Amino acid sequence: MLTKRIIPCLDIKDGRTVKGVNFVQLRDAGDPVELAKIYSDEGADELVFLDITATVDKRKTLAELVTKVAKAINIPFTVGGGISTVEDVKFLLNAGADKISINSAAVHNPKIVDEMAAEFGSQCIVVAIDTRNVDGLDFVHTHGGRKATLLRTQAWAKEVANRGAGEILLTSMDHDGTKAGFANEILAEISSALSIPVIASGGAGTMAHFKDVFTFGKADAALAASIFHFKEIPIPELKEYLIREDISIRK
User: Fold this and answer.
1) Is 130 a catalytic residue?
2) Is the pTM of this model over 0.85?
3) Scanning 5, 146, 185, 225, which has its CA 20 to 30 A from the CA of 43?
4) Using CA atoms in the order 88, 56, 72, 196, what is the torsion angle rounded to 10 degrees?
5) Separation CA 96–CA 39 (nearest Å)
6) Catalytic one among 45, 51, 88, 130?
């Protein structure tokens, strides 16, 4: 059995780490380089860095900050935000990223997933999906959750997996920042349908939520932000809890 992964997320706006609720009401959460080093030292399995306004502002991810974070840590590092071309990926990998995450660009031009996977390998390509439930149906949203699409979340996840994505980062906009638990139903549905790993995002509030997302949600990894940034749940204690609960986790 593959071990489950714990992944802190740094949502970056104007060079600072921020965190909100349901993708709005952002508040400052600290310096991204300092936080990255803390999480690496505490035993986080990976780190995700998302420049949350890069697509909206039509600018590229802060490459200089990516380089600083990469130098401060010794764990795999995924970068997303404003990535839309093969050249963008090459630039960020050279800046220190191990994987890249695309969202809006993949929706706009699905073939870019094929191209990136062919150029760099599927293991390097994460497709992020921001999903919201509307009248009982799950739909993909883009541009930092600001734009609704007509794409059904489950069908889109299957499509990008078939196109060569190595992982899915599924964020429930309805659960984001609520600390009420992950969206286990849709996570389980997508995880069961795909052969690639699914990272759960949105809703972590207690240690039990992580156990639930790995069991009921069938997620391969769980991503969280505010509970780590504001020291509500230390990563070492979370891992100890999950081991006691018989979840296969890296020590």
Assistant:
1) yes
2) yes
3) 185
4) -70
5) 17
6) 130
